[in-house]
């Protein structure tokens, strides 16, 4: 198989659909939870068997462990006073009930408006179950500044 023969992952474009709006609302909740130190809101949308790779490489398995990590994180001196601004840069529906979502993060909306590069990128896997979108997996990656 030639590289040009590879299929695309996306099944169909759903830009501006209710599904896309629902996913963006979940990301908005995560941003609000982070900015208000609300661990419940940070954890609310994770599936019971979700997987997370944190920005420094820690792996966390299951919603209970993710919730505990969120509680410790928002109480820590490192994150307690931190803020974040998120922009969803892409949503790809690879199946009817599965979406890959890329999120860019800055400390503030002003940093994004000023054209500063994002400080972090995240890749989410969303699944739809019982008519609702859940986070099945997330990987955060800090973006280093070029030397």
TrEMBL record:
Domain DUF4440: 23-135
Family annotation (Pfam families): DUF4440 (PF14534)
InterPro entries attached to this UniProt entry: DUF4440, NTF2-like_dom_sf, Steroid_delta5-4_isomerase
Residue ranges of the TM segments: none
Name assigned to this protein: DUF4440 domain-containing protein
Organism: Conexibacter woesei (strain DSM 14684 / CCUG 47730 / CIP 108061 / JCM 11494 / NBRC 100937 / ID131577)
High-level lineage: Bacteria, Bacillati, Actinomycetota, Thermoleophilia, Solirubrobacterales
């Amino acid at each position: 198989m030639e590289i040009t023969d590879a299929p695309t992952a996306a099944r169909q474009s759903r830009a501006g659909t209710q599904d896309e709006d629902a996913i963006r609302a979940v990301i908005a909740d995560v941003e609000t939870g982070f900015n208000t130190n609300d661990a419940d809101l940070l954890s609310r949308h994770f599936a019971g068997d979700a997987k997370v790779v944190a920005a420094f490489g820690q792996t966390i398995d299951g919603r209970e462990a993710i919730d505990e990590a969120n509680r410790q994180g928002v109480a820590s001196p490192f994150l307690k006073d931190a803020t974040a601004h998120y922009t969803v840069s892409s949503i790809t529906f690879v199946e009817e009930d599965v979406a890959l979502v890329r999120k860019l993060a800055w400390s503030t909306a002003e940093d994004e408006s000023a054209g500063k590069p994002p400080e972090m990128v995240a890749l989410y896997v969303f699944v739809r179950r019982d008519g609702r979108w859940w986070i099945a997996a997330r990987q955060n990656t800090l973006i280093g500044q070029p030397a």
